Amino acid sequence: MSVRDDLAVVQRCIDDLCRTVGRLEQEVGDGLDVRRVRTDADHLRESIGLLRASAAEPGAAHRPEPVVVSDAPYDSSLWTNPDEANERDGLDDEGLGARDRHAP
């Protein structure tokens, strides 16, 4: 079965569910529990409609390229500031970037 076929089957099942909830609502009444089930069934119908619409788009199955993370050791020179010779550990912006200190 294709995705389109699976979604059509799910849509038919949800339509049957909504019809059954409607009949149940007529027999049992419009109590809180029945309204909750009605709302949940309506949300399912909306969600499947959105899923069918996104699956119908040509690029829907396209996934973004994965980001490669290097296994190389972290480059500590990224935290140093060569312009300021007074800073022992490099960048020091309100306690950030100082290797031996913690922010208050």
Quick summary:
By secondary structure, the chain is mainly α. It has helices at residues 3-28, 32-56.
Helix content: 40-55%
Helix and strand succession? HH
Quaternary form: single chain
Which percent band covers the strand fraction?
under 5%
Radius of gyration: 29 Å
Taking the sheet with the most strands, its summary is: none
Q: Count of helical segments? A: 2
- Approximate shape: elongated
Uncertain ranges: none
The end-to-end span amounts to: 60 Å
Number of domains: 2
**Structural class of the helix and strand makeup?**
mainly alpha
How many strands in all? 0
The average pLDDT is 79
Topology at a glance:
Elements: H1 3-28, H2 32-56
Describe the structure.
This protein is mostly helical. It has two domains: 3-56; 76-104, no CATH class. Helices cover 49% and strands 0% of the residues. The chain contains two helices and no strands. Helix 1 packs antiparallel against helix 2.
Keywords:
single chain, 104 residues, mainly alpha, 2 domains, 2 helices, 49% helix
